[in-house]
């Protein structure tokens, strides 16, 4: 588990420098957590209680409506933070679900512990704010892609951002993320690989 904390430290310090004392206080919040494949960790309608740090595995945040339509919104994988961030920070019931696509290993910190620590350490509050701002930037970029780019352009951008994603995420979820049918996604993969 030490390597998990080393990865957490590396990512944390790349977002916001912390003193050794601040890092020690922050690192004490995190507890190991595991989940099986296809396990819903946060269900829509529940309050998000934890911020997750992904050590192993792949997860997704998705929306499911009354007409049984599903929209994959975000993928998370090591080393990154995960969970339903808006529900966590607002402490309101989540509109989305957070599900493992593969067996997953995490470190997780409770909202209550994070809030308490942020009150005493301005650098940790800044770290959380910087992390959430980074996530918001990603969401805004994705909205632009969905509204302005063709399916092929969205696919190419996804591969530029995460070239390894085809090996990590089942293709049916990638197709859903891109807003297309799984059959058309297969054709798109073959077309883009030939270019």
TrEMBL record:
InterPro entries: cNMP-bd_dom, cNMP-bd_dom_sf, RmlC-like_jellyroll. SMART domains: cNMP (SM00100). SUPFAM superfamilies: cAMP-binding domain-like (SSF51206). Residues 14-136 form the Cyclic nucleotide-binding domain. It comes from the Bacteria. This is Crp/Fnr family transcriptional regulator.
């Amino acid at each position: 588990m030490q390597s998990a904390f080393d990865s957490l430290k590396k990512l944390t310090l790349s977002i916001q420098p912390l003193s050794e004392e601040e890092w020690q206080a922050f690192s004490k919040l995190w507890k190991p957590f595991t989940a099986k494949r296809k396990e819903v960790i946060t269900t829509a309608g529940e309050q998000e209680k934890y911020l997750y740090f992904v050590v192993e595995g792949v997860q997704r945040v998705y929306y499911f409506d009354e007409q049984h339509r599903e929209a994959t919104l975000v993928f998370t994988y090591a080393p990154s933070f995960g969970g339903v961030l808006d529900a966590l920070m607002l402490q309101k019931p989540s509109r989305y679900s957070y599900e493992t696509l593969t067996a997953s290993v995490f470190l997780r910190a409770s909202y209550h512990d994070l809030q308490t620590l942020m009150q005493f350490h301005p650098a940790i509050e800044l770290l959380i704010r910087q992390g959430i701002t980074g996530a918001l930037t990603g969401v805004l970029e994705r909205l632009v892609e969905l509204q302005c780019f063709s399916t092929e352009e969205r696919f190419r951008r996804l591969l530029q951002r995460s070239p390894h994603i085809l090996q990590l995420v089942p293709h049916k979820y990638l197709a859903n993320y891109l807003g297309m049918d799984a059959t058309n996604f297969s054709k798109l993969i073959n077309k883009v690989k030939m270019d």
